Amino acid sequence: MRRRMITAVALVPVLATACTPVSELFSGSRGAVRTAIEQLGQAESYYAEETVSGGRSSGVSEIRFTTSPLDTHEILQADANGREFVFLMRGTTLITESREYTGLWYIVDEMPGKPVYPVAELELMLGAEEIVEVGPESLGGATTTRYTGSYLPQAGLAEISEEHQAEAYESFLDGVDQVSFDLWVDESGYPRRIEQDFGEVSAELEFSEFDESEELFFPRSVEIVEYLMLDPYGDMMLAEQRCRYGGEDPEDGSGGGADASGEPSPEASESAEPSEGEGSGEPSGSPSPSASGEPWTDESGDPVPLHEPVCLRETGEIDQYVEPEDGEEEAAEGEGEGEEGQGEGDGEGEASGG
Predict the structure, then answer these.
(1) What's the rounded Cα separation, in Å, for the pair 89 and 112?
(2) 72-79, strands of its sheet edge to edge
(3) Closest C-alpha among 175, 106, 183 to residue 139
(4) Which uninterrupted H or E stretch holds 31?
(5) Cα distances (angstroms) measured from residue 22 to each of 3, 31, 45, 186
């Protein structure tokens, strides 16, 4: 499977301030779209809600973006069947949480259904041959100007600045003949609403809470797994649960502090947490992810994996595992030999006693 890396919305250098009138940035209807791209690209934070109707993409997504401490997107999705998903994007990494099973985060290629890249949504509109100003409208208490137009998919895709985002939309737009849109831009140049008709699918994206900065959670590298789960009910997941809960099989609640519900006991939870400086999966250089998407590096500047699963051992079902630390494997073998020897001795004793 070819991995399609996902990055956060690109920041575009802007000379204007957030309160600069649209007319002072770019002129005309096309200029209003460019202004919206600029203003959204430089926003420190924002909230957006997208409603998609029709086809398999139906559902609602909540998007939060912040630049604090690094460019991060949080996307909460609920599909037509009521299933909920959470995705986080930072740098070149898109992860999703498997909270129903292990609580770990997994790197994935892309989100299901329609892509959610707000800046790219606006860039697509630049592929329209003509963008018409409809006129002023009040939207959510804000004074906005409405614009409308349509574009051919290939023309719109050519306007997207990030290649991986263009690839995501290319897949989504496959089979679509034409996309019509309406855009509402406020007096400061921020997009307030986008409505798009893709034929069988329609989408409405509303923006609010610009520059109301807040930090977004992003897990530690030790909580992120680099392979994609193929069977959430198979041996691979059970191996993770055994490791996380410290037991043999969480299904029956036996072993290692997992109670009958499969939840770890407080003692198991404490023992599962790696001590500082040990088992963190991070080198001593304390690497940190780069907003530009550069790989993690150690003190020497050498790239290191985003995560080395610290508690997964070789089971025959797991692609990645951590080699036992020095002495750990020998100790385990010694214990095994001791148990075998004890068993043989017991057997001989029973035989002679018989």
Answers:
(1) 14
(2) 131-139, 142-151, 179-186, 191-197, 202-208, 45-53, 59-66, 72-79, 84-90, 93-97, 105-107, 224-225
(3) 183
(4) helix 28-42
(5) 39, 8, 20, 8
To 5 degrees, how large is the angle CA 282–CA 97–CA 294? 45
CA distance 319 to 229: 10
Beta strand residue intervals within the chain, DSSP E: 45-53, 59-66, 72-79, 84-90, 93-97, 105-107, 131-139, 142-151, 179-186, 191-197, 202-208, 224-225
Alpha carbon of 160 to those of 156, 229, 266, 281, 335: distances in Å?
7, 31, 49, 36, 60
Paired with 203 in beta bridges are 52, 196
Give CA–CA dist 20/349, Å, rounded.
92
- Return phi, psi of residue 329, to 5°: -70, -40
Structure tokens at 131: 């963008």
Q: For 81-121, how does the pLDDT look when each residue is reduced to its tens digit (9 = 90+)?
A: 777 888 898 866 788 876 555 567 888 777 777 888 899 99
Phi and psi at 24, nearest 5°, equal: -90, -5
CA–CA separation, 263 vs 102, rounded Å?
10
Six-digit token string for 191: 């997009």
- Our CA angle for 187, 191, 196, nearest 5°, is 135
Span 45-68, pLDDT tens digits: 999 999 999 877 788 899 999 988
* Phi and psi at residue 205, to the nearest 5°: -125, 120
CA angle centred on 316, ends 282 and 311, rounded to 5°: 30
Domains delineated in the chain: 22-208 (2.50.20.20)
What's the pTM?
Answer: 0.58
